[in-house]
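In the laboratory, one determines a bound structure by crystallizing the protein with its ligand and collecting diffraction data. In a computational setting the workflow is compressed into a single prediction: the sequence and the ligand go in, and a structural description comes out. We illustrate the idea with copper (II) ion.
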Amino acid sequence: MSTVAVHDHGVAHHDEHGHEHHHNETFVSKYIFSMDHKMIGKQFLITGITMAVIAMILSILFRIQLAYPDKTFPLLTTLLGHFAPNGRISTEFYLSLVTIHGTIMVFFVLTAGLSGTFANLLIPLQIGARDMASPFMNMLSYWFFFLASVVMLSSFFVQSGPASGGWTIYPPLSALPKAMPGSGEGMTLWLISMVLFVASSLMGGINYVSTILNMRTKGMDLWKMPLTIWALFLTAVLGILAFPVLVAGVVLLIFDRSFGTSFYLSDIVLNGVQQPYEGGSPILFQHLFWFLGHPEVYIVIMPAMGISSEIMSVNSRKPIFGYHAMVYSLIGITVLSFIVWGHHMFVTGMNPFLGGVFMITTLIIAVPSAVKTFNWLATLWRGNIRFTPAMLFAIGMVSFFISGGLTGIFLGNAALDINLHDTYFVVAHFHLVMGSAAIFGMLAGVYHWFPKMFGRLMDEKLGYLHFWLTFIGAYLVFFPMHFMGLDGVPRRYYAFTEFASMQKWLTINTFITWAAIMAALAQVAFLYNFVVSIFAGKKTTQNPWESNTLEWTTPVEHLHGNWPGEIPTVYRWPYDYSKPGAEEDFIPQTVPFSQTMSSNLPHDFEDNPAGLAELNRFKSTLKAEEKVK
Amino acid sequence: MAFKKLINSKTILSFFAAFMLFGTNLLMAQTTPGATGAGEDANQVNWTGVAYYVLLFFLICLGIAAVGKILKIYDLSLKIQGKKGLKWNNVMGVICLVFLLAGLYGAYWSFTVQGSMTLPEAASVHGVKVDEMFTLTTVLTMFVFFVTQILLFGFLFKYRHSDKRRAHFLPHDNTIEKIWTIVPAVVLTILVVFGFFTWQSIMDTQQVKGDINIDITGHQFAWELRYPGKDGKLGPKNFKLTTASNKLGVDFTKKSSFDDLSADTMYLPVNKAIRLNIEAQDVIHSVYMPHFRVQLNAVPGLPTFFKFTPTITTAQMRSRLNDPTFEYLVYCNKICGGGHYNMQKVVRVVTEAEYQTWLLHQKPYLTDGLRKELHFAAAEPQKTVSQNRLALNN
Ligand code: HEM
Ligand SMILES: [Cu+2]
Ligand SMILES: [Cu+2]
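The predicted complex, in structure-token form:
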């Protein structure tokens, strides 16, 4: 079990394909109940991708309903049985699709799939640790996640169908099994799944935080950590502080559903029948939910931001612009994200003054977001940009973040939110700023660190194809939705046929659906590329992107403990790209300043007077030599 | 490879053409009898149609594979000739530029064409303020949108990789960073200040007097309306009193309940302050009247209200929009179950005179059935109502 101990494998002896190792590692302990952080990262990734594909198919199903509200598709009945009688998805099942799509995408793909993959893979590798602080807990974290996924999907197999109150599951709708079919067993399974999920997330998060705080290699002080690590660290902190509140909310909901309490319920007459609940408040649930829910959206986007920052710096061959500002804005976002949750509740009837306060905090959070955007642009400025697929996806992330972030400024303004709340404008906002941006950050990470994970390269041309089809597809899908929202079209409507004023959007709905189908099919290019490259991709070199960070100093073949010998010492920050005076256009973190005299800058020695003196001496001898000449 | 030859040969092209022809024929043949034939076909899966689409997708994949192979061969042949091979960084740089131009045009198109399909001018007093706020925000944010996207994709094109160049080492610049922290902060402060006061003036209306009280109650999947009678007061409610004939649970131990009216359509007099009292019975709904820029959740157990003043009558709006069928509507805008997508109520804004005549024709909430249920003597309250009317007429 002591994965943290040094294992002295000879690199040459390693066999990728899981033959018995010289120490007794079985198939089960290597691939299934693995405690190696790299394998756990891969498990999270593959489970995450599987869930993403499922959620994507769900979205295509409900898009078909929106595009063709009067057509029948017998195939749907064949596939879905009583959920789609007579070739049409039922109204309730439509809402189930929307609900499970949202839940899977937000929690299972963009939280567990994204943080789980890259925190596990990158934290030990980039800070120079042999494994996570607690490999066993790390393993449990994955298996709780897996269990949560299975329970969530199993709700498709209960007679009354999966949960259908929207991914935000507001009671009383979700609390009263008679309010809609999905609030029956499906909802129970949803709640169980989420409790398991949060357990997984907490075990992961505690591990990430303690590893980053305690297990950095020599020389890796906090201000030498790559932005990916900063982002993953702050994400984990957010998760640890916010997720327990969701559990509290969920447990009270379970009580209301199963034990007759009235935490969220009061004065209810359902289908003409008075219910015995009194004294509760449905709004209480919303406070608890969004106290997690808003930090959650940053839990989703911050790893994507960190990954994109790293990839953009590597591929522009330039240091990330304003490293300190990038870290401080991440910290700012982390802190502020706990005091803005009320912006999801402006029109619940809360005290107007409270709404005003939440509006102020919400618009303040846009400032660090703006700083990050400008810093990314400045990173590209006068760079020498290499278009790897990872780079393209990182850029896509920035573009989406701008487009979606700006609409946040409308929604954050309570006065404007009166008319925009729960319309397609909100759908457009969060699918761009969260959905698309975070997925692109995740895909960027997959393309970039694929060689680290699997020892092989993905095909670049297919990556290009994948990027452009997905990028254009996402804009075609979500851009028109802004205008639907501005026309007052509500979200979560099964069909636009019942309102004369909405019929003009029917053709645009058809267009959006076809754009979505194109983008979905483009994912086949990715899946093919991903699977084939694992087995038959071109073998990678040790540092394929000529990057500075520590993970590229480990051998291509994986081994427990990551580095065959001692863990390397870190001497400098991770962004010394294209430094004037250096031979190569990158200087890895493991190269001491004493070896790069010609490129050192006074700035490098801000808190190291001895080093500065050394540099000055070096410079004066240089000058002296020049004079002699 | 033989595979390459196969793909590049002309036979495959002609095969593709034949396939397309066959496929379209097949689809057409399928749809025609379906349309003319009896309804029993409707549940039959059209497997050939499905297979056709699947095959079509595979063909597209093959086509893409072929293009990929051709590119590879071209690249190789360039290299054999001693040239550099395809410069993908240049290709991508150019595509970024093309995307920028196409995207700018697309955004412009979307703003003009789809932008003109959005809601008409606000039909309420506060709505005008909301729209002003919206315009200000749009101008500021769209400026940032265009500038940043142009810079982003412009930089990608301009600074695409070249072996001859090295990137400019620029780790930070405190001055410019301060500028782009302070400028957004100032702009957002302006928006916050305006927004805050607009919001307060719309929502903080407890003190505003002289409203017409209207009760709107949501349940799965309809809205119930209740207007006050001559006393201008709505009777109190208690959910425990709810029965089939007392749907809202109005409390008839109070005087003010007796003259309440129930209505099917929400009539509003123009230019009068309205106070909508909003509640729900079963799950959360949301009263959404987008033309008036009004929205507030209807929450069971939590009565709330929204005050607003309509300014444009339905008739005026019809002529402005050149749409004789136009109606203002209440939508339900909070997911509430299977019927959520069709939970609407017509709203008519009319002149004061029209409103008064309409009001005279509304049925009392206290129906005969309810009277019986509550064991009221049939005549007694009737009298009070007519007395009130008399008093008012004098
Ligand atoms: C620039 C800063 C941002 C501001 C001011 C902002 C503001 C808002 C507001 C006010 C809402 C509520 C809208 C409504 O329901 O009426 C909202 C919804 C949402 N935002 Fe943002 N947002 C910002 C950035 C983000 C980011 C970075 C993410 C995620 C990565 C995000 C994800 C979401 C999601 C998921 C929702 C919808 C939740 C739902 O109702 O289902 N937002 N945003
Ligand atoms: Cu939020
Ligand atoms: Cu409703």
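Chain B touches chain A through 117 residues (CB under 8 Å). Keep in mind that any predicted model is a hypothesis to be tested, not a measurement.
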